[in-house]
Amino acid sequence: MYILEIINRLVSNVRVKDVIDIVIVTIIIYKLFMLIKDTRAEQLTKGIIFLLVLTKLSEWAQLFTINWILNNAMTVGTLALLIVFQPELRRGLEYIGRGSIITKPLIEIRGENMTKVVEELVDAVASLSRQKIGALIVLERQTGLNEVAETGTGIDGLVTSNLLINIFIPNTPLHDGAVLIKEDQIKAAACFLPLTDNAGTSKELGTRHRAALGISERSDSLSIIVSEETGGISVAENGKIDRYLDIKTLEQILLNMYNPDEDKQTIFSKWRMKNGQRKE
């Protein structure tokens, strides 16, 4: 009975504002966790939590020297955290900026125009795959990639399969590097991309795949990779890569991407749910 009285007293003191406050904080914590999940920041966060617990325990145990060292380390560490977490902080701010409250989807190519872009991309990738010609195509979404475009050669031409195939033909001036596509335009070719800094990346992946992962970790872009060795087709998004895709699957992924109504789920999550498995 005494416990019930305490619970009733606590519940009676809870206001609607308190509930809203708790819900908002819970959502923020959940979103932060999802942002750092499967990244280096996840392990760093665990280390920080451990140090905080250790600092409090040393205070309770009156271990003054250890407590002094830990307190000073945490003070200096605040500045270090801003440096260490710089990629994750940038990712988080971009995520907020891409929210539907602040901005609308940039990719709104509809009807015949959207279908044409997908057809041209699929035809080009199918041809490159058959010929085992290596290729890396980055599709810009809501995060601007002007700094990537500036590392390559400006094209500013409509997306066509013939143009894409000619760009990646070996020993041509633009074949080495990535093609950047924005909406229905080939923005630039021979672009340099940052390589992934994920230490857990499979050693089987070559430079193209690592570059595709790298740009997907720093933006919301989607990258298509054609392996020069096997002709295999892969797609990278949100720091994840799916390999050995067939043309039909690639076409469906692209159709989902260019449909703004499908913006609430990631492209890969829908494909994985449909197929019931994930290929690394």
Structural key phrases:
alpha+beta; elongated; 54% helix; YojJ-like (1; 280 residues
Could you give a quick summary of the protein structure above?
This protein is α+β, with helices and mostly antiparallel strands and 280 residues long. It has eleven helices and seven strands.
Secondary-structure content class:
alpha+beta
Largest sheet: 7 strands, mixed
Radius of gyration: 24 Å
What order do the SSEs take from the amino end to the carboxyl end, as H and E?
HHHHHHEHEHEEHEEEHH
User: The CATH topology of the largest domain, please?
Assistant: YojJ-like (1
Query: Which regions have little confidence, pLDDT < 50, spanning 5+ residues?
Result: 100-109, 262-266
**First-to-last CA distance:** 55 Å
Total count of strands: 7
Lateral strand order in the biggest sheet = 2-4-3-1-5-6-7
Number of domains: 2
Q: Beta-strand level of the residues, as a percent range?
A: 5-15%
Characterize the structure shown:
The chain has helices at 2-13, 16-36, 40-60, 64-84, 86-97, 111-131, 146-149, 161-168, 207-218, 247-257, 267-275; strands at residues 135-140, 153-158, 178-182, 185-191, 222-226, 233-237, 240-245. It has 280 residues and is α+β, with helices and mostly antiparallel strands. It has a seven-stranded mixed β-sheet, sandwiched between helices. It is elongated, with a radius of gyration of 24 Å. The N and C termini lie far apart (55 Å).
